[in-house]
UniProtKB/TrEMBL annotation:
UniProt topology in membrane: Multi-pass membrane protein
Species of the source: Mycolicibacterium moriokaense
Catalysed reactions, semicolon-separated: a quinone + NADH + 5 H(+)(in) = a quinol + NAD(+) + 4 H(+)(out)
Function: NDH-1 shuttles electrons from NADH, via FMN and iron-sulfur (Fe-S) centers, to quinones in the respiratory chain. The immediate electron acceptor for the enzyme in this species is believed to be a menaquinone. Couples the redox reaction to proton translocation (for every two electrons transferred, four hydrogen ions are translocated across the cytoplasmic membrane), and thus conserves the redox energy in a proton gradient.
Protein family: Belongs to the complex I subunit 3 family.
Annotated protein name in UniProt: NADH-quinone oxidoreductase subunit A
Superkingdom, natural source: Bacteria
Subcellular location: Cell membrane; Membrane
GO cellular component, one term: plasma membrane
Keywords from the UniProt entry: Cell membrane, Membrane, NAD, Quinone, Translocase, Transmembrane, Transmembrane helix, Transport
Keyword Nucleotide-binding (UniProt): no
Subunit structure: NDH-1 is composed of 14 different subunits. Subunits NuoA, H, J, K, L, M, N constitute the membrane sector of the complex.
Length: 120
């Protein structure tokens, strides 16, 4: 049990911080509601006046941008453990990371060439 005590304390502190933050925001925050604040925000697209059935198609470029961000963000996250343990790793790990970076840059160049990064 002693080995898990710091983890439990950290979890309790995180939960308490979340609850206290939300409570303070509700108690102290302004309560001036208007029609614009209560309306749904849909990434710059004007919301439909008829909320029963959505007949407008949502542009795919929002999903493409989100997926590209997630893919490249996750790939970059893999660099952190390697950077921390770089001194203990050998030449093989350096070659593997260079190969990984080549794959990332090839994917980036492919997306750039296909116009996945242009917003127009």
């Amino acid at each position: 049990m002693n080995a898990f005590t710091p983890i439990l304390v950290l979890g309790a502190v995180a939960a308490a911080f979340a609850v206290v933050s939300v409570t303070i925001a509700v108690v102290v925050g302004p309560r001036r509601f208007n029609r614009a604040k209560l309306g749904a925000y849909e990434c710059g697209i004007e919301p439909l006046s008829n909320h029963t059935v959505s007949t407008q198609r949502f542009p795919v470029r929002y999903y493409v941008t989100a997926m590209l961000f997630i893919i490249f963000d996750i790939e970059i996250v893999f660099l952190y453990p390697w950077a921390v343990a770089f001194d203990n790793l050998g030449l093989c790990a350096l070659v593997e990371m260079l190969l990984f970076m080549v794959v990332v840059f090839v994917a980036y160049a492919y997306v750039w060439r296909r116009g996945g990064l242009s917003w127009e």
